[in-house]
Design a protein that fits this description.
Blueprint lengths: L28 H4 L6 E4 L4 E4 H9 L2 H5 L7 E3 L2 E5 L4 E4 L10 E3 L2 H6 L23 E4 L4 E4 H9 L2 H5 L7 E3 L2 E5 L4 E4 L10 E3 L2 H8 L14 E2 L20 E5 L3 E5 L8 E6 L3 E4 L1 E8 L2 E8 L2 E4 L3 E3 L12 E6 L4 E6 L2 E11 L7 E4 L2 E9 L14 E12 L3 E5 L10 E4 L3 E3 L1 H10 L5 E5 L1
Parallel strand pairs: 1-13, 22-31, 24-29, 28-30
Antiparallel strand pairs: 1-2, 3-4, 4-5, 5-6, 7-8, 9-10, 10-11, 11-12, 14-17, 14-21, 15-16, 18-19, 19-20, 22-23, 23-24, 24-30, 25-31, 26-27, 27-28
Pathway: Cell wall biogenesis; peptidoglycan biosynthesis
Keywords: Cell shape, Cell wall biogenesis/degradation, Peptidoglycan synthesis, Transferase
GO molecular function: peptidoglycan L,D-transpeptidase activity; transferase activity
Length: 451
């Protein structure tokens, strides 16, 4: 069992749990508005990342795509820029409030200037096709093709918006198979075959900084900055469930985790949460180190958990999308996810029926009872028979199928046992979650249950 630490209060509100994944650099303006300013310090290079540059960096691949920041933001070529190991970001104020406010310099084009007349960079004939190969794509815009591992990487990590068009074919450079793009150079590393490091990007940002004599000397950490750590930079935060008011859901990774009144190891315990239980993160603060990580997540007024024990909670794709407000109940991961159309807006951990007692299918809320006594005699299980139950003051019950099947509060199962089978067929919720779903759903709402 993991041991927990205790907690202080430092109002350093940031939101790296920031954006939903943006299509280009930066997040959509509608999402950016509900996020507080953020600043992260990278001890590896001694530089900060904040604001639109942070949003763009996080939303489009983060460390794997762009590397660490090498400078602070500064004005160069008449605009605000910041250098990274593999890129240079430019702020274009004329696009403020749109996803184009941050754009990456065409560093691939810069490197290619000296190589334009070599064979790999000469465009192919306009009528070049793929020869029927589904793993190859030809780009008439630049006259070059993209295939296999490089094509897969390009498609999975941002494509045209992040890397630009290919401006060369594959060729060997310094003992590596490489290919140039408008904003990047892909390198094939067979020694890492089968891992996320099989394709790496060239350090064009560092090369460009050196060519221009840009200083990359480290600076001291600002007092309002959060120290970077791997969990904070997880790109899955961009895909985690977000609430309407900007909170982002994480899941607990410790067996048992104390909730503290402040992000300090000696602060009073104000609650307990458990493995895989969701927490809605509303701010990030610095506090006492836990496993070497001096960062805590605020999950409510006077309620903090150590960031070392939280991962992004990314919903599993539901089998089907429904209109309006509905709930997807997954009996494989024991989460109930609230949707508005295709957008997930809340998640709760559940209990479900033992021995296949929870019905599978698509149902609708039939009727609701705010507070009731549940007596199995009403569904034919009499006192003294196996499976008999009599439960008073059950809150927020929403029936969706004849035979007594409902979503409701389950106070008789210990919270630590949530996330498994333990009921007589109903979907059990912790009290705060049951109240939330009571306010969210109504008679007629879809309840989709599946494995």
């Amino acid at each position: 069992m993991h041991r927990l630490r205790r907690l202080p209060l430092l109002a350093v509100l940031i939101a790296v749990l920031i954006s939903g994944v943006a299509g280009v650099f930066g997040a959509p303006a509608a999402q950016a508005a509900d996020i507080l300013p953020a600043k992260i310090y990278f001890h590896e290079t001694g530089h900060h990342l904040s604001g639109d540059f942070l949003t763009a960096w996080q939303a489009n691949g983060g460390l794997m795509t762009f590397g660490y920041p090498l400078t602070e933001p500064f004005v160069e070529d008449g605009m605000l820029v910041q250098y990274f190991e593999r890129a240079r970001f430019e702020r274009h104020d004329q696009h403020a409030g749109t996803r184009y406010v941050v754009q990456a310099t065409l560093l691939g084009n810069w490197v290619a200037e000296r190589l334009r007349h070599t064979d790999p960079f000469r465009p192919l004939p306009p009528d070049t096709g793929t020869g029927g190969d589904p793993h190859r794509r030809f780009f008439p815009e630049t006259g070059h093709s993209l295939a296999y591992g490089f094509l897969d990487y390009w498609q999975r990590h941002g494509g045209l918006y992040v890397f630009g068009y290919p401006i060369s074919e594959e060729f060997t450079e310094n003992g590596l198979t490489v290919q140039y793009f408008e904003r990047a150079r892909f390198e094939w590393h067979p020694e890492h075959r089968g891992t996320e490091f099989e394709v790496l990007l060239g350090r064009l940002g560092a090369d460009y900084a050196a060519s221009r004599g840009v200083s990359t000397a480290p600076v001291p950490k600002d007092s309002d900055a959060i120290s970077a750590f791997p969990g904070l930079l997880d790109p899955d935060w961009g895909k985690a469930i977000r609430t309407h008011d900007g909170a982002v859901f994480g899941a607990i990774t410790a067996d048992v985790l104390n909730i503290r009144s402040a992000p300090r190891l000696d602060a009073p315990t104000v609650g307990t949460t458990y493995y895989r239980h969701p927490v809605a993160i509303r701010a990030i603060v610095e506090g006492d180190p836990v496993d070497g990580i001096p960062v805590w997540y605020q999950i409510g007024d006077g309620r903090y958990v150590a960031a070392a024990w939280v991962r992004p909670l990314v919903p599993a794709a539901p089998p089907q999308i429904y209109g309006g407000r509905w709930v997807d109940v997954n009996l494989s991961n024991f989460y109930a996810v609230a949707y508005e159309g295709s957008r997930p807006v809340y998640v709760a951990i559940i209990t479900a029926g033992r021995d296949g007692k929870t019905p599978i299918g698509v149902f609708n809320v039939q009727y609701r009872v705010r507070n009731e006594t549940m007596d199995s005699a009403t569904i034919g299980i009499q006192k003294g028979q196996p499976g008999y139950y009599y439960l008073e003051n059950v809150q927020f019950t929403q029936y969706f199928k004849d035979g007594g099947y409902a979503i409701h509060e389950n106070y008789w199962t210990p919270p630590s046992a949530f996330g498994g089978f333990g009921s007589n067929g109903c979907i059990g919720l912790l009290l705060p979650d049951a109240e939330w779903f009571w306010n969210f759903l109504s008679v007629g709402s879809v309840v989709a249950i599946h494995y």
